[in-house]
Task: inverse folding
């Protein structure tokens, strides 16, 4: 079968690879119908994750059809259309039972690297390097899903793949950001980053009753999408974000600050230059500009909710602000299994529609082009989504940006 | 820097600097002696390394009563033939703590597998999945990485 593989720093290629097979009794095989790029893939692409290897199949955000199940799979059936959570849980360890699925004890078969790096191993993730279990990713015609009963969720008939694919990661991650922030009626929420996750965090905050959501980015098309969702926006190249947030909140600062940017944060000024130099010279692994700003902006006693992916150490983290302002700092990879059934139900009811994020539907063979568009934010690309079943002959039509659907 | 590396730098200097071989050798010896003395002094000055626990422990979502006595799982019984094994209730009803004494890498891998087996009924496998072209280095490195990642850390 065809699969999109990491082949080197800033290089991916479509290769012929063997088809997956059931390796455990609770596995299912899924025929992938849509598989999205994700901002966290860029950390792999850019070479910041040392445990990715040439030949690894990428992709972790996907929807597809069940084509085979192992003998101990009880809930899933062949023929079902399912969204699969990007982070793999076992459903039986203490963490899964408490709803902390991304901290699963049992789904990272190679835990030693993370145990050394961060103290403990966390859950396995599809297509996210050997530190995260070395699972083959979903940018392929077929993918094997372990513990299928707890990781694959049937998609309601009226929810199209273009929206259901984001129920795998972007929507539940965004929802978790607002949930961790404890967003409620009357809150003012600021969201750093208007990619798929940031937009969904803004949407979730509004659904939870936030009175005002302020979304921060620099790309006009992303800011327009956030406005379509109902957020106010700030372009950080044009305004001083800290000043603007104070003005917009009567001097208090946002009640909840959601950081949906991560370790390759962009910005302006000396601090950004400092971060770039330190990261390039490997004196720090992660650039924390947006994170520092979120901490600085947050109102006294507020909550900073970190969704952006960080891998190692951030220099100049303002712990003094966290302590003296009495902030609550929360973070985590998504506990998707906790949210996906509710999200799919809201999609069924029309309360959530994430399909506007899909700006570039592409056949799998155009994977390298998709990542280039996504990484460079060309052509208004917010998310490129690969459809392994379609062929390059149809790529002309398929690659037309879905701009008509964009702002919501 | 290890003392053995110290003499290499002067050997690379061009002869045009006018030093004789004997002079260079003398400098080398002096450098090596100084480095050795420094290393010994540093070692003496360094505080003793904190002692590592000799027990490797995991918490399992299981009734401690099921992990003790004659009906305990076979894997646990086999571990107990080679190691001291301690099973105690975890605080807050969080299952059972299994601790194994003097656990080497292989034993740590076995304990992790035991936990998975007890909790989920199977041990997750990743070998045999689809993969693209590996580099020669990657083909050699992957099994080593997996072995270290499964056995190495405490």
Result:
């Amino acid at each position: 079968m065809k699969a999109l593989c990491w082949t080197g720093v800033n290089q991916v290629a479509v290769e012929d690879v063997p088809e997956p097979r059931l390796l455990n009794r609770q596995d299912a095989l899924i025929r992938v119908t849509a598989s999205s790029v994700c901002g966290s893939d860029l950390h792999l692409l850019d070479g910041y994750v040392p445990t990715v290897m040439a030949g690894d199949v990428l992709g972790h955000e996907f929807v597809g059809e069940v084509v085979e199940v192992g003998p101990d799979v009880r809930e899933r059936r062949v023929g079902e259309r399912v969204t699969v959570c990007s982070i793999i849980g076992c459903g039986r360890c203490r963490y899964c039972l408490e709803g902390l699925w991304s901290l699963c004890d049992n789904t990272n078969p190679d835990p030693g690297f993370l145990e050394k790096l961060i103290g403990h191993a966390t859950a396995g993730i599809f297509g996210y390097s050997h530190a995260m279990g070395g699972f083959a990713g979903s940018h392929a015609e077929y993918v094997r899903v372990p513990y299928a009963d707890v990781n694959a969720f049937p998609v309601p008939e009226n929810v199209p793949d273009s929206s259901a694919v984001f129920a795998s990661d972007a929507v539940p991650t965004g929802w978790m950001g607002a949930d961790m922030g404890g967003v409620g009626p009357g809150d003012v929420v600021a969201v750093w980053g208007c990619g798929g996750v940031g937009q969904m965090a803004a949407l979730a905050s509004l659904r939870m009753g936030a009175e005002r959501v302020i979304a921060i980015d620099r790309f006009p098309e992303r800011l327009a999408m956030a406005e379509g969702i109902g957020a106010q926006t700030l372009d950080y190249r044009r305004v001083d974000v800290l000043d603007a947030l104070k003005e917009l909140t009567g001097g208090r600062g946002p009640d909840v600050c959601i950081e949906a940017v991560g370790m390759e944060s962009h910005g302006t000024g000396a601090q950004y230059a400092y971060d770039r130099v330190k990261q390039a010279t490997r004196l720090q692994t992660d650039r924390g500009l947006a994170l520092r700003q979120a901490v600085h902006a947050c109102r006294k006693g507020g909550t900073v909710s970190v969704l952006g992916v960080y891998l190692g150490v951030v220099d100049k983290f303002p712990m003094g602000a966290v302590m003296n302002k009495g902030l609550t700092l929360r973070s985590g990879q998504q506990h998707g299994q906790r949210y996906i059934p509710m999200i799919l139900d809201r999609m069924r009811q029309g309360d959530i529609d994430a399909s506007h994020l899909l700006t570039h539907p592409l056949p799998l063979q155009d994977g390298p082009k998709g990542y280039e568009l996504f990484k460079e934010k060309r052509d208004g690309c917010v998310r490129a989504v690969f459809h392994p079943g379609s062929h390059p002959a149809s790529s002309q039509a398929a690659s037309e940006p879905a701009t008509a659907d964009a702002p919501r | 820097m290890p003392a053995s590396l110290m003499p290499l730098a002067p050997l690379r200097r061009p002869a045009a600097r006018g030093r004789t071989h004997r002079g260079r050798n003398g400098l080398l010896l002096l450098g090596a002696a100084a480095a050795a003395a420094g290393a010994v002094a540093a070692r003496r000055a360094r505080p003793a390394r904190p002692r590592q626990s000799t027990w490797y422990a995991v918490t399992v979502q299981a009734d401690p009563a099921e992990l003790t006595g004659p009906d305990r799982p076979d894997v646990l019984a086999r571990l107990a033939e080679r190691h001291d094994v301690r099973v105690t209730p975890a605080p807050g009803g969080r299952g059972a703590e299994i601790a194994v004494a003097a656990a080497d890498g292989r034993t740590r891998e076995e304990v992790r597998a035991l936990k998975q087996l007890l909790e989920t009924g199977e041990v997750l496998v990743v070998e045999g999945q689809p993969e693209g072209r590996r580099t020669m280095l990657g083909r050699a490195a992957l099994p080593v990485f997996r072995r270290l990642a499964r056995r190495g850390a405490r």
User: Anything to note?
Assistant: Chain A touches chain B through 48 residues (CB under 8 Å). Residues 336-349 of chain A form the longest helix (14 residues). Confidence is low (pLDDT under 50) at residues 393-408 of chain A.
